Structure formats: C-alpha cells, structure tokens
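batch_manifest entry 22 of 60
target: Phosphotransferase family protein
source organism: Parasedimentitalea psychrophila
requested by: lab member K.T.
priority: normal
notes from requester: please return tokens only, no post-processing; we will run our own comparison against the previous entry in this batch. if the run fails, retry once and flag.
--- input ---
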Amino acid sequence: MFADKAALDLVAVAAYLRPHLPGFEGPVTASKFETGQSNPTFLLKTPACNYVLRRKPAGVLLKSAHAVDREFRVQKALFDSNVPVAAMHLLCEDEDVIGSSFYVMEHVVGRNFVEPTLHGLDRSHRRQVIEGMGKVLADLHMVDVDAVGLADYGPPGNYFERQLARWTKQYRAAETDPIPDMDRLIRELQSTMPKDDGQRTLVHGDYRIDNMIFQTDGTRCLAVLDWELSTIGHPYADLAAVIMQWQMPQGSEGRGLAGVDREAQGLPSDQEFIHMYCADRGLPEIEDFGFYLSFSFFRMAAILQGVLKRALDGNASNPERAIKLGRYVPLFARHGLEALCK
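--- output ---
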C-alpha cells in the first residue's frame, strides 16, 4: 500500500503544522501512497492522530494542472452534504514551506477496492457496494452548487461542446500516426451532439471504485477521493465514464468487467446501474446515452495519445508502460464508434 520512503521534508512539515493545525503534536513519520495519483499523497503518523497530506509535484507544471487548492475547496464545500468526503484541515499555498502547495486532511480508515469485480466480498455485498457507488454519484449530481459556494467552480456553456473542442485540440497536438477511426469518431461526435439540456452540476471527473473508501466491515462509502479533475459540467460525463471503465478488460491493467458473468457475481449490468442512478435522481430514461459513452471513449483515447507522445518525445516517467498504453488508442476509438450505434 505504501512505499518505504517518502520524499517529504518532515522537519518543515512539522514546523508548519504545529502553529497552524490545532491538536498537532510530533514526532511525525510519513509513508507515501503507491497508487497512481498525480498529486503525491502521504500518510502522516503522530502519536495522537494520523493525517493525510496531498501536495503538488515539485518542478515546473502546466498552469492548470495539479490544482490542490481546488481539491481542498471542493471537499471542504461538500463536507456537510450527502457526498462523503474526508474532513479538510488546512491548505498551505506557501511554496517555500516544502517546495509546493499542499493540504492536510483527515485520514479516513476503511478499505479500498482496486477493481469493480470486488473479489473477496460475497455476492450480496458486491451488489450493495455498487448500489452505494451509484447513490453517491447521484447525490453528487444533486448538490446545490450555489448553496455550497461552488457556482463559479467551472465555466458556463455547453460542457460537451467545450470538452470535445479541448480534447480534439489535445489529440491533434499529440498525433503521431494517422488513426482513421479517431478522425471519424471526432466527426461523428461533432455531428451527433445532443442539444444542451441545461443540466449543470458538480462532476468528479474521475469517478471510479478505486477512488472511494468503504467501511472496513461494511459496504457504506466513507469518502470519495482524488478530486483533481472536478469541475462544473454535465452529470452524464461521470455516469458514462463508469460504464466505459466497466467495458474494459478485467485485471489490474484494464480494471473493468469485460467477460464477467455479472449476474452470477451479484454485479449489476450497465443498464441496471444506469436505471438505479436515474431512480436515485428522479430522472426518466436517458436519451442518447450512446453519445455520452462514446465521448468517454474519445476522451480516454485523446489522453492516451498524449501519454504516447510524451513517451516518444522522451518525457515519460515510464516510457515502456506509456508506449503500451498508447497502443490502445485505436481500440478506444473503435469502441467509441461502436457506442454511437447502440
């Protein structure tokens, strides 16, 4: 779960926390979470209490990337809502303290499921975990952003139109070899985009089972993690991203449910999950869901193309894995086209 050593100046951290975090007393030790979060995250242990510290990476970063201040803001705003989040303790934007801004939050004790297959749980508990996952997502999309002070958390306008333009630009900038299916997918998404239905909600941006903490001996979600991509947008982007993930191969790489006998395992089908979500939000059946699913495949294909380009340019931290992931771009493009036909 943790790496052996944490690249964190504990002397500086302790010196800052003593006057700023009520109840903090050293000595303090740190362990870095291994899981692939772009913002390095550490478990801080003290004799009286444990905390989690999440920081920007060191070095030169893209202007809007790794915005830990936004993560802190959205979780603080949601703390008294129906969306379970860790308690936020403090935000430090003084980069002189440890070399980058960071925040400290509650350490939520529970269990994390890496894959949606939920191996290790019995059949009925698997169903309860996934139902809870859908209920939390519905609750997230029903948050009154004005009431919690997040009305300005994202730009106005047609979310999918904006996102399609953004990721098409990103894809073109990272394009290496021609991929006809990707070119066709972009054209099809542009021509089949549904009319904006006016839904404007908080969206997580990376809503997956492995970004959630559940009770150690139960099935209730205790906290949703990793809010780096959160914004104001369209709720079906989150919902479609869940379904897209489930259509990936099972295992540590795909982390999907392809080929799984879901009924036998107590897991809902894609359509059952969508129905549960709509029931929780009091919505009718979603029209044009194939578009939203197709867009999710397109967005992931564009992201992976960027990963491949960085590897070929010699800028990837793990070039071998980056090249391997880049080979999936044509597959995601093909899945995106198939989703439009459903």
